[in-house]
Amino acid sequence: MFIELDGWHAKLRFSACHLIPDHPKCGRLHGHTYAVSVRIEGSQAGQFIIDFEDVKRIVMGVCDRLDHRILLAMDDPRLKITKDDGYYTVELIKSCKHYVLPADDVKLLPIPSVSAEDLCKYFLNEISTAIRNNGFADNITNLHVRVDEGIGQGAGCNISLA
Hints:
Distance between the termini: 14 Å
Number of domains: 1
Number of strands: 10
Number of helices: 2
Helix content: 10-25%
Strand content: 35-45%
CATH class: Alpha Beta
Radius of gyration: 17 Å
CATH architecture: 2-Layer Sandwich
Shape: elongated
CATH superfamily: 6-pyruvoyl tetrahydropterin synthase/QueD
């Protein structure tokens, strides 16, 4: 048995700016409105596998931390990120571009890139951790997450929680 939340329809969305270094088009700062969809498999514990409201609260907590931010991948070897006096300086090593960004506008993520694939893995980790830490995992066997960077295009991944 499973439950699903479609990020577009359930309003599990955030808007953010990012770049993919060395990509001819995505190597420039640009933004998306992202949607996060979730499928949770398991057995019913009482009435539910997990309450939809609990899932929405968990997913929106992650979305809210990223919303209206410039997302930077801390583990991207193509970037050199330094912080000084309330600003981040971001150097794209191959292209010699650099940006100076207000620290309040930036969200550093522990991922190797800000591609849809790596954002999906980030969400999967954050959601699965929250599910485990909030005592919901006893009856949940699998978690599937999809991060869309526009309607009809995105990346998905899953993890076993059994």
